[in-house]
Amino acid sequence: MATASHRFLGLDSSTQSLSAIVIDAQTGDVVANHSVAYGARLPAYGSPHGFLPNPDPRVVHSDPLMWVEALDLLLGELRQQGIDLSTVAGISGAGQQHGSVYLAKSFDRAGTWALDRPLRDQVAPLLSRKTSPIWMDASTSAECAEIAAAVGGDAKVVALSGSRAIERFTGPQIRKFWKQQPADYERTAEIHLVSSFIASVLAGRSASIDPGDGAGMDLLELKTGQWSQALLDATAPGLGSKLRPPVPASTVVGEIAPYFVSKYGFKAGTPIVAFTGDNPSSLVGMGAALPGKVIVSLGTSDTVFAAMAAPRTDPRGYGHVFGNPAGGFMALVCFANGSLAREEITRRFALTWDDFSRAILSQTKPGNGGNTLLPFFTPEITPRLTQPCVKWFGSDGFVAGGDAAAAARAVVEAQALSMRRHSDFIGEAVDTLLVTGGASRNAGILRVLADVFQARIMPLAVATNSSALGGALRAAAAVGGADWQALFSRFCAPDAAHAVEPDPSTRAVYSEMGREFDSRVEAVVASSFVKG
Ligand code: XUL
Fold first, then answer.
1. Alpha-carbon distance 404 to 408, whole Å?
2. Whose CA is nearest to atom 6 of ligand 1?
């Protein structure tokens, strides 16, 4: 029993899978790490990538019952693997951000889950909307414009909530539901995010939303951590009565329902700590929830995120500010042209990743001899560009068979300069950038990031799902009394052996290049607005 009280379960209900991690907070061991992929394991939902096909590519919904069935499947498999869930002392977790679930009857009025029927069959009759719009949905531009206009413009929405009214955010989705299915909206008693929905299912009662995920709704007032009456009013009538008041992320929102005790062997009374969004949870799971570290995640799109003490918002309106589950706030900035753009260069110039790295490290110099690329091969989120925009300034080498080395450096310098510029509002002194994702082992990319940011770069050795791990760490801190620093050094130590230090002699080159790059981007953004 002595070690039992240090075990914590973290869950992550993400777009394509549900994952679980069990940690021993004291020894630093990951006791279990298991996922259920919806497409492969639950093919009956017709969602090979976790969402339903739709004739309109802008509409992306998922079946919330798939998430519930996955929970039964996952817990059953953990048990089959010999994980003794009675040793779990607390549970928390995360969900893909922005997605919403609509209930005709609050979980609080549904009674406890019957032990002899699958959970999905018991949740099904509670739904007032069969499907859940998720973060990939882009069908609410009209509603975004209406909400912004009602509140007094984009800048007002940003100042209040931390983000502009954005298509994938929950408020505009709720407004569209009210406009298109007013009767179903009317009979909706309660609206959840994916995170609070999964927490509610586990607790068998309605769990509140936390400010980490709540801030991704265009409804939460950042400064107070409560729903903003102005935003509620601008979104849909009577919305306030369909949302429970938000609670701090460390709140115990319930105890595990008897169903899970009886079926999977949890200890009765196991506390459930409020779930949060997958990005706020990853901030914790990557060990960056205390200010001073910035995470750069190099994926299909690149993301920069960081803890902030104060709720500073992006004056340009591209970045988002969410609650930080460890306290305070976090910023998140998303760049659509991430590995997409890097791969475009390797493809065009027939470069291997080793060639790409060598081009940066030994065949070109900081500043790239005056060559600059605007690498927006697809429409960009940051800065907002509704059309692709690829422009080359400098030598005439940006053609097939041209200067491959200059092209390789150019795409990475452009990305790093854009990340530096658009994370400037975070305003925390940064000593280290923790780099994660597919390209985080590329020495050339790390070198450019170190020099542009003039900060130490360390690859993150997160072999595990950082969002589920964040859930387990949050449970350990909230109900196990564990200290953040101790947890981070046990579970999230970066790969110091591959750290890259900045070269101070490049500082001036990159300040100058940054100014020039910014004005070129400004010109493109301005002309794209003129074109509409
Ligand atoms: C963040 C976002 C995605 C989702 C899905 O704003 O839309 O990262 O959280 O993972």
1. 6
2. 97
Ligand 1 pocket, 168 CB below 6 A? Answer: yes
**Residue 216 and residue 322 in contact, taking contact as beta carbons nearer than 8 Å:** yes
Does the beta carbon of 96 sit less than 6 angstroms from any atom of ligand 1? yes
Report the candidate in 298, 337, 502, 335 with the shortest Cα–Cα distance to residue 419: 335
pLDDT tens, 445-459? 999 999 999 999 999
Q: Say if ligand 1 is within 6 A of residue 276 CB.
A: no
Measured distance CA(83)–CA(101) in Å, rounded: 30
pTM of the predicted protein model: 0.93
Question: What letter would DSSP give residue 363?
Answer: I
Q: Does the C-beta of 278 come closer than 6 Å to ligand 1?
A: yes
Strands 329-335 and 320-323: antiparallel
The answer for residues whose C-beta is within 8 angstroms of residue 10's C-beta and 6 or more apart is 20, 21, 22, 23, 91, 92, 93, 94, 281, 285, 468, 469, 470, 471, 472, 473, 474, 475
The end-to-end CA distance of the chain, in Å, is 65
Q: What is the DSSP letter of 117?
A: S
Instruction: Choose one of 16, 67, 135 to mutate for the ligand 1 pocket test, by most ligand atoms within 8 angstroms of C-beta.
Output: 135
Q: Is 17 in the pocket of ligand 1 (CB under 6 A)?
A: no
The answer to whether 164 and 317 have CB atoms below 8 angstroms apart is yes
Amino acid at 251: T
Q: Is 451 in the pocket of ligand 1 (CB under 6 A)?
A: no
pLDDT digits (tens, 9 = 90+) for 102-141: 999 999 988 889 999 999 999 999 999 999 999 999 999 9
